């Protein structure tokens, strides 16, 4: 018997409990808004809720006076073809923030393999413990390089050590979540970690022979700095609303960043995307792909690889339905006039 999404969430709740993440039917940031440890934020937690709400304030324009042909959701990116323009986001310290049913190594093992089998790809996380990156890249290598290791904004010396692991894994791209500069555990690191200027970022990217993705861009100014530094792609992201109160929602800044970049880099967006309609909206505003993070935690805690397949099938079918109802036969057919 095939599990549905609500059954998956019930199973997740049984494994995870409700002390930290509540495995809510809709992950909107309200129940966990300021729980740290937990999936909330270090401040009042309003940004995660605003991320979610901002997508709901955008509407799609139906148009069914169009050719009745099959819809394709395939995405070609960095030499690979994916079934959907959906990536699983990097999540770290799952044992502390969700439940000790999994540690980061066990979580990433299921995440990378499950996403590859579902036709998409996962970003993996990083942390203070070097073994997290060692194991994440080992898992990516075991899955034919289908994964994107995401490195914290360490010094160049530390980054190069982690880059060697990433390249040995045959990963087709490397990411750095520069917005992680707001995480408490990075403060006081030696060598220093956290914020870096354009020249420092350029030095990191110039040493990286595969596409480099800068995650954590929330302004036109930041996007242009990433481009100047040589990034192949950016992720419009505020780290799930976890690192700084009172920032805009990602949906509020996406379009202006897309216009400024003008096709010179690939653009991902994350933050509060919870269904295929949200994903369609992000693509219509100019994103090339989206990243979904917290729901994959629930999927894995609920049913491991099967849970990932249930979630991906749900998001994918909702995206297909929306494309059919709005007159788009492929991802390139999704245009700005399809949302308002």
TrEMBL record:
<feature type="binding site">
    <location>
        <position position="215"/>
    </location>
    <ligand>
        <name>FMN</name>
    </ligand>
</feature>
<feature type="domain" description="FMN hydroxy acid dehydrogenase">
    <location>
        <begin position="50"/>
        <end position="340"/>
    </location>
</feature>
<dbReference type="InterPro" id="IPR013785">
    <property type="entry name" value="Aldolase_TIM"/>
</dbReference>
<feature type="binding site">
    <location>
        <begin position="270"/>
        <end position="274"/>
    </location>
    <ligand>
        <name>FMN</name>
    </ligand>
</feature>
<protein>
    <recommendedName>
        <fullName>L-lactate oxidase</fullName>
    </recommendedName>
</protein>
<dbReference type="GO" id="GO:0010181">
    <property type="term" value="F:FMN binding"/>
</dbReference>
<keyword id="KW-0560">Oxidoreductase</keyword>
<feature type="binding site">
    <location>
        <position position="242"/>
    </location>
    <ligand>
        <name>glyoxylate</name>
    </ligand>
</feature>
<keyword id="KW-0285">Flavoprotein</keyword>
<feature type="active site" description="Proton acceptor">
    <location>
        <position position="239"/>
    </location>
</feature>
<feature type="binding site">
    <location>
        <position position="237"/>
    </location>
    <ligand>
        <name>FMN</name>
    </ligand>
</feature>
<dbReference type="InterPro" id="IPR037396">
    <property type="entry name" value="FMN_HAD"/>
</dbReference>
<keyword id="KW-0288">FMN</keyword>
<dbReference type="InterPro" id="IPR000262">
    <property type="entry name" value="FMN-dep_DH"/>
</dbReference>
<feature type="binding site">
    <location>
        <position position="239"/>
    </location>
    <ligand>
        <name>glyoxylate</name>
    </ligand>
</feature>
<dbReference type="GO" id="GO:0016491">
    <property type="term" value="F:oxidoreductase activity"/>
</dbReference>
<dbReference type="InterPro" id="IPR012133">
    <property type="entry name" value="Alpha-hydoxy_acid_DH_FMN"/>
</dbReference>
<comment type="similarity">
    <text>Belongs to the FMN-dependent alpha-hydroxy acid dehydrogenase family.</text>
</comment>
<dbReference type="Pfam" id="PF01070">
    <property type="entry name" value="FMN_dh"/>
</dbReference>
């Amino acid at each position: 018997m095939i599990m549905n999404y609500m059954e998956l969430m019930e199973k997740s709740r049984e494994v995870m409990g409700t002390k930290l993440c509540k495995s809510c039917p809709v992950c909107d940031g309200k129940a966990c808004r300021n729980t740290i440890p937990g999936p909330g934020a270090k401040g009042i937690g309003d940004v995660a809720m605003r991320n979610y709400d901002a997508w709901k304030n955008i509407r799609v324009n139906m148009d069914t006076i169009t050719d009745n042909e099959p819809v394709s959701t395939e995405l070609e990116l960095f030499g690979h073809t994916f079934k959907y323009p959906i990536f699983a986001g990097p999540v770290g310290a799952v044992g502390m923030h969700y439940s000790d049913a999994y540690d980061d190594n066990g979580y990433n093992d299921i995440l990378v393999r499950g996403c590859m089998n579902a036709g998409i790809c996962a970003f993996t996380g990083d942390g203070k413990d070097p073994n997290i990156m060692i194991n994440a890249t080992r898992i990516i290598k075991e899955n034919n390089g289908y994964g994107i290791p995401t490195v914290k904004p360490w010094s160049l010396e530390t980054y190069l050590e982690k880059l060697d692991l990433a390249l040995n894994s045959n990963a087709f791209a490397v990411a750095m979540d520069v917005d992680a500069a707001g995480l408490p555990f990075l403060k006081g690191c030696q060598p220093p970690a956290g914020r870096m200027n354009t020249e420092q970022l350029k030095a990191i990217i110039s040493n990286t022979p595969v596409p480099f993705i800068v995650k954590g861009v929330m302004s036109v100014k930041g996007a242009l700095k990433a481009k100047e530094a040589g990034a192949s792609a950016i992720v419009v992201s505020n780290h799930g609303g976890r690192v700084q109160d009172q920032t805009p929602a990602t949906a509020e800044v996406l379009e202006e960043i897309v216009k400024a970049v003008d096709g010179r880099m690939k653009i991902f967006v994350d933050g509060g995307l919870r269904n295929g309609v949200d994903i369609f909206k992000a693509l219509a505003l100019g994103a090339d792909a989206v990243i979904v993070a917290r729901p994959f935690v629930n999927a894995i805690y609920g049913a491991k690889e099967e849970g990932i397949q249930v979630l991906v099938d749900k998001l994918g079918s909702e995206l297909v339905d929306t494309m059919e109802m709005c007159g788009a036969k492929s991802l390139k057919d999704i245009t700005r006039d399809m949302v308002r």
